[in-house]
Design goal:
The chain contains eleven helices and twelve strands. It is an alpha/beta fold. Helix 1 crosses helix 2 and helix 5 crosses helix 11. The protein has a five-stranded mixed sheet with strand order 4-3-5-12-6. It has a five-stranded mixed sheet with strand order 9-8-10-7-11. Strands 1-2 form a two-stranded antiparallel ribbon. Strand 1 and strand 2 form a beta hairpin. It folds into three domains: 80 residues, Arc Repressor Mutant, subunit A (Orthogonal Bundle); 99 residues, Periplasmic binding protein-like II (D-Maltodextrin-Binding Protein, domain 2, 3-Layer(aba) Sandwich), CATH 3.40.190.10; 91 residues, Periplasmic binding protein-like II (D-Maltodextrin-Binding Protein, domain 2), CATH 3.40.190.10. It is elongated.
Length: 289
Amino acid sequence: MVIRIQDLYTFHVVARAGTMQEAAHELGVTPGAISQRIRAIEERHGFRLFTRSKNGIMLTEAGRALHSDLHDAFSRIEHANGKHFTNRENIVRVSATTMFAHSLLVNSIGRFSDTHPAIKVSVEAEDRVVDLRSEPIDLAIRHGLGKEPGLRSDWLCSPELVLAASPLLLEKYGPIDSPHDCLKFTLLPDTTGKDWSIWFEAHGIDATNATYGTKYGNGFLTAKAASDGQGLALLNDVCVEESLATGQLIRVLDTTWPTAFAYYAVTLEETFQRPSVSTLINWLKKDLG
């Protein structure tokens, strides 16, 4: 018979914690995942482990017997893990785009580490949207309007983006006097492919008929494409500082940017309850805001 250690350890943690909610918090998963693992053991072995009521859960006789057999073994494993490995509760794994990590996150994390040396931060700079429910990521930093169904979004900052174009492109297609004029041009998307649609939405513009160009790997490549005249781009000012200074790109359409169009710290609600995660998010809100 295959021994499903993860399910058995989940049972051990639930029995020790007394509630599935506390066990979910300790293991960094959803209460639903806890229920599924317990149900898997019960179905596999054909007996109930807990009785459930409005007042919570209690071990059945079979559950008490199983927990008695497992307790010493898992307690020794937990002790060894705590002795030889860093406490997982004090590690926060962050996913952010390469551009955000380069321009804002690295310096802020440096200051955070000086203030909170016990909390270790691991940054994965990748230009894709991670799945917080299935991947070992605690916190994702996303750009948009903060609308993340089923997830917690904390506003971090709304740095100025530059609407940039090459001089030759503007000569060919004419000036840009309003956000609506951007629809006359090919638009270069960011790595998510959503930046322009969100930008138009924030300005109350129907962009159904917008024309999009090539999606590149990061903001620096998109800036190069914009300077080559491939289309308009919405870029972090860090990426276009040199191109603006040399005249390869022109900043067009000075507008007041909606503060909702910003960077957000996105987490599962139960993950936010971990002190290390909430401490980091609150730090970033204060440091970057």
